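User: Good morning. I'm curious how guanosine-5'-diphosphate would be positioned relative to this chain. Could you predict the structure with it bound?
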Amino acid sequence: MAQPLQNTRFLLSASDARQLEPCHAEVAFVGRSNVGKSTLLNALTHHRQLARVSRTPGRTRLINVFAVGDADRWIVDLPGYGYAKGSKTENATWQAMIEGYLTSRDSLRMVFVLMDAEIGPTPLDHQMMEWLASASIPALVVGNKVDKVGASRREAQRRRVAAALGREPQSIAWVSADKGTGIPEMRTVVANVLAQD
Ligand SMILES: Nc1nc2c(ncn2[C@@H]2O[C@H](COP(=O)(O)OP(=O)(O)O)[C@@H](O)[C@H]2O)c(=O)[nH]1
Ligand SMILES: [Mg+2]
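Assistant: Good morning! Here's the predicted structure, ligand included:
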């Protein structure tokens, strides 16, 4: 049997969620610029360059859609937030784009919110979690870059990050996109969410 998420390819980019067709099921990835979202998407989908790892943080300003297996199940890469150099207008445009997407997709099953495992949730991460909860959109926290946390501290740090978010440690994906830690498990989670009827 093929591995989960093996057959994933780029479908399209959109500047506005209204440009997107309906699909059967989709999951979205969101997080601060530079948190490793592109690296994680590449790792999950067995690609080197599916989601281009941007050299300039915040460069990726579009909704990028990837199709898994049949073209009607999607992984959606949302533009990163918290780009320090972003102007007020840019930030407002980002917010309108993200909220437009998150509130208009009936097929959206889960939003994966990436955070830095070492830094933990930033104020913008908290804001995103609160907004998703208020919109009743299921969210799963992903702590990425766990390789930066020493092995002896790693589980304690997971508990700390979970506590800061009012969640159970085991409910948080704890991964290193760079080193592959936790990636097979997370791949299964994403594939299962997309596979449901
Ligand atoms: N140490 C470490 N660095 C990572 C990891 N994942 C991504 N990075 C690095 O973080 C930087 C930003 O990654 P990128 O995927 O472009 O982040 P994005 O802006 O969220 O898409 C790059 O230098 C990556 O190599 C990880 O798991 N561990
Ligand atoms: Mg990126």
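Strands lie at 8-14, 25-31, 63-68, 73-77, 108-116, 139-144, 173-174. The pocket of guanosine-5'-diphosphate (ligand 1) is lined by residues 31, 33-39, 53-54, 57, 80, 144-145, 147-148, 176-178 (CB under 6 Å).
Let me know if you'd like a different ligand tried.
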